[in-house]
Amino acid sequence: MSASDDNTSANQRRFDSLFEANHPDIYRYCVRRLGPADAEDAAAEVFAVAWRRITEMPAGDACRAWLFGVAYRVVGNKYRHRQRQRNSSQRLRLVRPTETSQPSDGIPGDEIDCLYRALDRLGATDRELLRLASWDDLTRAEIAAVLHINENAVDQRLHRARIRLRTHYDKLRLAQSHPTPEEASA
Description:
- By secondary structure, the protein is mainly α.
- It has two domains: 1-99, Orthogonal Bundle (Rna Polymerase Sigma Factor, Chain: A); 102-186, Arc Repressor Mutant, subunit A (Orthogonal Bundle).
- It is 75% helix and 0% strand.
- The protein has helices at residues 3-34, 36-52, 62-88, 109-120, 124-135, 140-147, 151-177, 181-185.
- The chain starts with a helix and ends with a helix.
């Protein structure tokens, strides 16, 4: 067996281990952002990049953040593709995450709906930060690697995003508990 064969075999083992450990998380990340119809293709694309760049990937725990960084860019490409389709044909709309992809364990439906409406009022960067931290359970170092910002910026931006989310959520909950005169008379 040649040295080339040994490298190929070692790369295959590394990729197999990487895939086994990370595919479920990457797939869920893609489902939440793209919906189930496009998630499998996006996750496959992430791991195709991982295979092509297996020798360039960081070792250890940094590899997970690297994969999420690739997924972030793949999802961004999918969004841009959708936008181009939408511009040429007004028939397509973004897919909202499915109920099975939402982190709603034990939370009443009206609160989940209110949370999603509050999230919709945030900017794209705030939404992504909150999702990476809360839904994908990435560390601040991993988030920094995914978004190509430093860890202190992650802390600051995440703090501000949480405040903005809470503000929007509280306003929506207050509006639900105090209907307008028109709603009350209906």
